[in-house]
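ARCHIVE CARD
Drawer: 12
Card no.: 0347
Subject: one protein chain, sequence and derived structure
Cross-reference: see card 0346
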Amino acid sequence: MKLRSIVDQAKAHVGEAASLKKLDSMRDSLQHQLQAQVAMAKVQAAEAAVSGKQLLSETRDKLQVALDETQRKATEIAHQAAALIPQVAELEPILKQLGFVVCNIDVTLSIAPSLAVIIEQQDAYLGESLDALLKERQLPLTGFQDKVLHLLARATDFAANITTNYGYRAIQYELVLLPPGVIIHFGPHEPDLLKPSLNVKIEDSPPDTLTSGEDEASLPAVESPVEDLPISSAGDEHAPQ
């Protein structure tokens, strides 16, 4: 009986020892797995950091390229504006012959430079067709002058229709040469504090149109932000559509 008890105790001790060994083995396995996961996490974090730095560097390079291109274009347009000043000086006496007085020349130096000539029509020429004056006087014009004056003729025809139908009178014309277009500044035909002013912009083709030397390309149709105006345009090829 005592021998069996000793044997049972021995078996129990062996079983406990086996369990402890198994637990130690499981603990070592879990520790190895944890270490492997930590190592993998470190590798992934390092790769993500490298990828993030690379992406940031690539984005910075693209932004720099875009900035350089913008500055290059701005410099190019600024040079165009400077080159237009002598042509504007040559255009001024022609405008005077056609009944317009140059009030100001506005040059804006920015990321998108612009050049505008602000003119007013003399009272003696109000209501006269600029196209008719150009045909009548047969002035020798450069390609630049011809394009500017025909753009202005479209604007004056438009302004005449606005005056006839709504009573607004064109006070000034802003000849925008960069980019090409005309801004018409309207005021009430008769002083009226209750009647607001009206500004209309008639745009032409891209900026290089007016700097293309003697190119005689036809001008595109008028695009005006004033919509749904029932302007009478019968027989008037320059009236807005």
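Annotation on reverse: The chain has three helices and five strands. The first strand starts at residue 100 and ends at 108.
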